[in-house]
Predict the 3D structure of the following.
Amino acid sequence: MKKGKTFLRGTGIICGVVFSVVFAWSIGARGLVQSSASPDKPRADIITIDALKSFGDLERPPVIFLHEKHSDAVEKQNKDCSACHLKEESRQSIKFKRLKDTAKKTTMDLYHAECIDCHNQTAAVGQKSGPVTCGQCHRQDGQVASSWEPIGMNNSLHFRHSKALDKKCERCHHEFNESTKELFYAKGKEGTCRYCHRQVSEENRISMRLASHQACVDCHLKQLALDKDAGPVKCGSCHEPAQQKLIKALKDVPRMERNQPDAVFVSKVKESQPVAEPPAEGSISLVPFNHKAHEGYNDTCRVCHHAEMNACAQCHTMEGAKDGRHIKLAQAMHQLGSNQSCIGCHERNQKKPECAGCHNSISRTRVFEETESCRMCHVPARQTVAGAETVLDPENKMLAAMLLEERKPTYTPYPDEEIPEKVIIKAISDQYGPAELPHQKIVKTLVANIQNNKIAGYFHRDAGTLCQGCHHASPETRKPPKCSSCHGKPFDANNPLRPGLMAAYHQQCMECHSAMGLSKPKATDCTGCHKRK
Amino acid sequence: MSISRRRFLGWLGAAGLGTTLGTTARAATAKHFTGHPGAGGVLFDSTRCIGCRKCEAACNLVNELPLPDQPFDDLKILDKTRRTDAKTYTVVNRYDSNSSGSGPLYRKIQCNHCLEPACASACFVRAFRKTETGAVTYDASVCVGCRYCMIACPFEIPTYEYDKALTPRVQKCTLCYPRISKGMLPGCVESCPTEALTYGNRSELLRVARQRISRFPQRYVDHVYGENEMGGTSWLYLSAVPFREIGLREDLGVTPAPQLTKGALSAVPIVVGLWPVLLTGIYAISKRKDRISDAEKQQAVELAVTQAKTEAEEKLAAALDQAKQQKEKEIEMRIKKALEEAAKAQAEEAAEPETGEAGEPEAGETGEPEAGETGEPEAGESDKPEDEEGS
């Protein structure tokens, strides 16, 4: 009897412990879910307050500050930006209630006093307010999803600004005088802000982040104060992807006015080679470049002029120099996969669906295998211009423009009657009946794609060039050999890379269709192409 | 005929001993085997696979497997992830969530025909064999159905005919060993419409794979899966996305399976050989210990007994001695007394002459029997050694 009682008591205690543990855990878990799941959608106004970082390691997690929440609250109280930001020489500082970070203690106290004070006051008048205790702001788990996207000045925005400022470039553009430590404006030397203002602040130059917020937001605010049409002042208006799309973009942006050339020869810069040697017989070192046309292909100058608004060869010399990180001119112009090189950019064009059908299956190494293609860009340094044998002067922009004039999209397809209308593929029909290839329809689609495209129209030189997308291993000819001339039985030990006839057909059709984004017929729908036997 | 449990276990033990001694030396070799020269393999290029299941159908046909419930042209089956089973040597799975950005990808699953197969190294009856064609074949006639191969395989390929009560077999892709021995292509390879499967010499396939990567560096991940995985496999894979995204394990490492078990397995013959000796030794030692302790105990008892005996004898002798002395003393005293009485009687006789001669014979009769009774010792009982037992 006594034994039974002890047992019951023990069970009771164990049950109690288990219940309390489960209860505590469930509360903890719920708390965790509440704190980690952000109720808001991704935001573009997240500022991480870690100003004390410059004084050493942080003692507590940095504070996640949502700027627009605060600017809205301040606006509600009929206050303006000066509620938090001080003025520095008529310009509004982007720092909170101070102009400089003097000492760790001062900065820390400033934040604590001002934030908590304002939160208290707001709460006192019965308005929705912010936290006042340490852990509510300094949270380890306070991460908010960010939708922040960088923004830059593209050609359209630049034109709108220069128009609004009556082409007073000096309102934004400046240079730094090392000796007088002053900013000054140099006409004709305007460049991208990012050339000087980098990721982080350095001696005598503030970071891009500081510079853009100081200059852009301050100017927009002043315009707003004058009741004028002004640019955005809120975080999201510039940095929220959805709102970025709302920024008015001009369709035809007038050219930038900075005395840039219409046409140039891409070549070595004269100063780097003081003794002007006449180009050797047969040299094809010169490339006439249509600068004017290329301005329109990109939406900012810094796509190509990535470090300086200068000729490429200034830094990328023929032999490579320190300024150009020892990247030679030839490499800078030919590098595959680069955003700034000619071929890198042209190659990116080939990824468009209308081009990718053929270009996807052309080996990347082939670009440099076909030396004939060099002449598509390069011109002989000695040639007959206007009936006279001349040695081209790399500085002669007129000549470059003249040579470019001759470069027109020349593609003309074979006449329709020479293009077979249908091709019946029956060589290996086994399970299924022959496949009927709408040959002419395919050719016409490809021709149409090319004719709307300037670069494609130029580079597909001959009528047969386009045919090589499928008739890939034969020279440009009116009557290319049949597929079965090369492709036969699969797994030929002598030509291990060459697929058999069936796979050759299937691979080419399917790869092209998928690269061009054609969903019909599906690759697995046999009867989409073949008749059922 | 019936066999006793004892006899069966005896046979089993003998068989176990025989196999470990016979094959571990081969399986547990430390030398890395890079494949038989000229051995075949298959290169699977996932960028070419369209998920048509023609390979599955061909596999079913050439291996004379039972037809599945859902026909092979029903592609809805790709909605779920499948694995091989005893009636399906190969399956194609679809991988929708991948980083290629160009829609779903497909991967064919079958035996990878490892260069140093884990299944073969785990099999103690040598039912699996890496043939010179590259195929890993299975011999059902020797299989005992232990299914160690199924546990050993890192790719979870061998499957078991659980539905067969009498003759269950382990089933897996054979690389169409009967076909490739005759110079034909494996069924799946032959039927692939896009040459996503390429059959050939494994070393040649590696070269082909490398060339495809170098010609289209943006299309492929720069790695040939199976070149070194688990010490190398006869099936090789190319992919546009990291291999884990098309269901291939990236955690296998490059060590062949037999090497992983080499240490443990090479200890088996030693253990099997040494155990009888070891156990007999342990038995002999414990026996000897018992014997020695028994002997010591006996010796101690004997010693104690003799000690007690001598002590008792000594005490007895001392007591006898004392008794003797006492007796002599008493005799002396009695003699003295008698003499005195005699002298007294003589003196009285002298005074009365007729009584003096009567005193002498009386003294001799009373003195002697009394002394004999009191001198008897009892030391034998009281001094018996009691503590000898415990020691």
Observations:
- Confidence is low (pLDDT under 50) at residues 18-28, 355-391 of chain B.
- Residues 96 and 104 of chain B are 4 Å apart (CA to CA).
- The interface with chain A takes residues 48, 50-52, 75, 102-103, 185, 192-195, 198-201, 204, 207-208, 211-212, 214-218 of chain B (CB under 8 Å).
- DSSP finds ten helices and nine strands in chain B.
